[in-house]
Amino acid sequence: MTGKGNLIILSGPSGSGKSTVVFRAIEERSDICFSTSVTTRSPRAGEVHGREYFFIDQKRFDEMVANDELLEHATYVNHSYGTPRNYVEEQLENGMNVILDIEIQGARQVHEKMPEAITIFIMPPSMEELRRRLESRGTDTQETIEARIARARHEIQEADFYDYLIVNDNLDLAAKEFSAILTAAQCRFDKELAAKLVK
Ligand code: 5GP
Q1: Distance CA 5, CA 22 (A)
Q2: Which of 21, 47, 190, 194 is the most exposed, having the fewest neighbouring CB atoms within 10 Å of its CB?
Q3: CA-proximal residue: ligand 1, atom 4 (nearest)
Q4: With a cut of 70, which residues of the chain have pLDDT below it?
């Protein structure tokens, strides 16, 4: 153990199954926590304030940006999303691995500030499958679904700066791959740790 946790950036289109993979990983390991974002979009059925997101209005969001309370922020299909800074910094200091489930513009911002972050892109097995998942969710209008598919296509084309790619065809396998990436990251050569071991 080196003391400080790893920051894990997980991106991928809405409908890629990202959040299911994240919640599975958190259930299975006590060394991982999830950074709950703020968003100005409305909750979907079943979403809980403080679990999936903190649902806030645009005025509060703008205040948080002005006060530098967000580590990164971006607009996604007409709504604002951002990562509260304090929680992430505190958890990393406490040695926890922190997962950010964020889209690609935010991922770029964090990657530039914190190049040691582990970046993982998760994709559905095909665009047809993505459409099927978004439609079967039954929570978005056709217009929003089309906008999300267009955005997904664009993100996948721009995703070449990520370290890892998971194709989520099978949830169990995707969750195992995610956990394996994290384990590998924890075993990256750490000079400080190596020096301590020979003292
Ligand atoms: P959804 O509305 O489907 O929950 O999320 C839409 C997109 O916003 C997803 O790609 C998700 O990863 C991204 N997202 C969620 N929270 C944040 C955040 O705090 N910052 C950024 N940049 N993207 C976020």
Answers
A1: 17
A2: 194
A3: 14
A4: 1-3
Q: Is 155 in the pocket of ligand 1 (CB under 6 A)?
A: no
Give the distance, in angstroms, between the CA of residue 2 and the centroid of all CA atoms in the same chain.
Answer: 23
User: Residue 114 is which amino acid?
Assistant: M
Distance CA 99, CA 97 (A): 7
The domains of the chain are located at: 7-197
Give me the amino acid identity at 137: R
HSE-up of residue 65 (Cα within 13 Å, Cβ side): 16
Q: Which atom of ligand 1 is nearest to the CA of 70?
A: 19
The whole-number pLDDT of residue 24 equals 87
Architecture of the domain delimited by 7-197: 3-Layer(aba) Sandwich (3.40)
Amino acid identity, position 112: E
Q: What is the pLDDT of residue 3?
A: 67
> Token match 């911002």: residue?
109
Query: Using an 8 Å Cβ cutoff, are 64 and 15 in contact?
Result: no
Give kind and range of the element (H or E) at residue 32.
strand 32-34
pTM over 0.70: yes
Residue nearest to atom 1 of ligand 1 (CA): 14
